[in-house]
Amino acid sequence: MAKEIKTIVLRPRWTQFLINDMLIILVCVALMITTLLFSLPHREVFLLGTGCIMLFIFWQWLEFRNIECTISDEQLCYRHGVLTISTDYMELYRIIDYQENQSFMQQCFGLKNVTIVSGDYSSPTLTLVGIDNRMNVLAELRRRVEYSKRKRGVYEITNRI
Length: 161
Hints:
This protein has helices at residues 14-37, 43-65, 104-109, 137-152; strands spanning 8-10, 68-71, 75-80, 86-91, 95-101, 111-118, 125-132. It is α+β, with helices and mostly antiparallel strands. The protein has a 4-stranded antiparallel sheet. α1 (14-37) packs antiparallel against α2 (43-65).
């Protein structure tokens, strides 16, 4: 592995937000159209409810846009939050296993989830949601984990039968 390793920054694709919140967005649009087209007895209540749902969707969007995963040569940093930003650090040499999975909707949009299992106490599993399926994140992550383990002289010993 080269001495200078470029840092990788991963963010979920915006289509993952649609997958996550598509149902509530459709309900909100249907409520808004119904309220504006028909004269309902309590029209203000419907408009207020729809406005609250739209604020909730906007907040979900802000949280979604503030997710960032940075993979360097020694650490994986997962940063998230809006008003309070949290950053979880995972040493690469502690990573034990990886997994990729795709829901039906993710397959339609070309996305995947990458789950990382580690020996880290604070965050033993980390799932990166909405990663572009064309990116071979696992191969690059595996290469960096192996390099980090060799660099530190870490060997995995299991006692499974």
